[in-house]
Amino acid sequence: MFEVRDRDGLARIGVLETAHGPVATPTLAPVVNPNRPIIPPKDLAVRFGAQILITNAYILGKSLDRDAIVRDGIHRFLGFPGAVMTDSGAFQSHVYGDVDVTNAEVIAFQKAIQADLGTMLDVFSEPGHAYDRASADVDETVRRAHEAVSLRGDMALVGAVQGGLHPDLRERCARSVSSLDVAVCAIGGVVPLLETYRFRDLVRVIIASKKGLDPSKPVHLFGAGHPLVFPLATLLGCDLFDSASYAKYARDGRMLFADGTRRAADVRESSCLCPVCTAHPMEKIAAEETLLAEHNLHACFGAIREVRQAIAEGDLWGLAERRARAHPALLDAVRELRRHNEFLEEFEPVSRPGALTYVGAETAHRPILHRFRRRLQERYSAPLAKGLLVFPEGGRPFGERLAAVVDQVARVADVHFVVKSVWGPVPLELDQVWPMCQTIVPEALDLEALEAAEVFFREWAAGAGFPFGILWEGETTLDDLRARAPGGRAIDWNALRIRATADLQFGRGAADALFAGAISYVISRNTGKVRNVLADGEHVVSLRAADGLFTLKAAGARRLAQAFPLPRLRIVVDEDSVPFHREGKNVFAKFVREADPEIRPGDEALVVSPEDELCAVARATMNGREMRAFKRGVAAHVREGVPRGPSAPRR
Ligand code: GUN
Ligand code: ZN
Predict the structure, then answer these.
(1) Which of these is catalytic: 8, 43, 72, 87?
(2) DSSP per residue over 48-102, as a string?
(3) Which domains are present in the chain?
(4) In a designed cystine with 31, which of 244, 324, 386, 630 is the match (CB 3.0 to 4.6 A)?
(5) Which pLDDT does position 651 carry in this prediction?
(6) pTM given for the model
(7) Which of 95, 82, 37, 88 is nearest to 62 (CA)?
(8) What percent of the chain has pLDDT over 90?
(9) For ligand 2, a single-atom ion, which residues have Cβ within 5 Å?
(10) Pairing of strands 254-257, 550-552
């Protein structure tokens, strides 16, 4: 069973339960070559903290020790107390062209040696396999997955995803395999990509596979063990890695670092603070394969810890973008991500703690910013005005920086206000929405970022419906504005802000529904900003200072429920759990029947009965797709139960 404890987009911090204890993910399963264990398995657990290792059932099955391994079990044979995953020989078929073992045989052997996680014998799809060949690989892999499931007994199974570089085949294979009774889904066939630094293809393969995979299952990336790829691969939802790189590179006299690989002979001073590098002079390390292997493993686990910390901080995108500077092929891979924003956005939380920090021109293409621009086009309606006044990027919050000018202009001209920010257009009334206000950008922007900002702006402005747009260049612009948009404008900024925010957050029409009637505000005495909004005396929403978005109150939820039909904004729960939510108990994924596919992690959602009676207002921790898939964990935190009342519709 896999439980997710924390997340950042598709990346998650989770726990995989095995027959030999829990495995905290993301993590690396070091490869133990039974013929050449350079670091004793016991040390992997004791000195490196490895909770899982991977070894090869195909090789074990051919070993002279075969009988002893079957008799004692793999754990005793290796002397490893944690979880043991075994691989099947599919990789050997890639290396040698074929293996003389069947799927059924290798499953039986893995059961016999008591592997915690046994792997089916998949068909290794080479990146060069044309469509028909790769399609046949998938057919056979899926057939064997079914067979493996029927034979697994009580051994937890690893199901493999193949399909070469063909996205639809990857997705099909992933969907078929992950719908079966497998504990872990593994993306295979990627070693040739890793070996040749084809990271852009790797991104395409992982994303295509993730589209088909059941999101509630942990995902292993076969053969990925270089620290360079951990940030990117976890960012795309991989939870487990395995690799022999630490040992292979050591044999070649090479050292792994988070930013790449170096020949040990070329390393005059190691920047690493691992026990090996702090205890021995470089000449000694370079001369001893075991020390190199130990350093390499420390580097790998260090990189994993760095990734976990980044997930916890909500900064994995930043880490991946920064790491991409280590190799141009990695930069290409990060630049590929924007082409998959449609999918990545689904998993993107509504906001994150702290500020969004500019790393490079790629940053503007992150899913959170893609979402803002997309919603601006689809959900936002600009107020009527004779024209548009455009301000340049600069100090934030924009509203505060520009307050005096805006006042001055509004007295003489009838225009609306927007900032041409590096992330795209930001109508002034939305300047508090995360991350538009909470952003750190350099003062001097690079050309690519500026050009992108220009394109984002034009894409929006073309559809925004203003007869003209004009750039603020100082006092002289005032004369232009007087001439082209004569007449002042009385602006109710609070009203503009809450209406735009509501539509952006809940969908077009939400402002009309939430704010029908006489509107009044509770204003924060500290900040002077709107805190609560009341409509006809009912508290409908509160505005959060941290991310500029609304917290929904029961009265607001009722209004949205009337305005938007099922399944919009809804989490539909089992009849039996309804009374619990009415009392304020959280929504467990297990009891979710249906959920709006548009729900994102962190979204405000309406918890309803199968008859669409509102029973609670909650904050989602998962997206709609995940809520339906997970059988474990909290899908949404209820913040307000709604008692059954006369206002609840009954049928
Ligand atoms: N090890 C590296 N790549 C693969 C793969 O595609 N399948 C299996 N089973 N093991 C692997
Ligand atoms: Zn070191």
Answers:
(1) 87
(2) T--SEEEEEHHHHHHSTTHHHHHHH-HHHHHT--SEEEEE-SHHHHHHHS--S--
(3) 2-339 (3.20.20.105), 356-484 (3.40.50), 557-651 (2.30.130.10)
(4) 244
(5) 40
(6) 0.96
(7) 88
(8) 95
(9) 272, 274, 276-277, 295
(10) unpaired
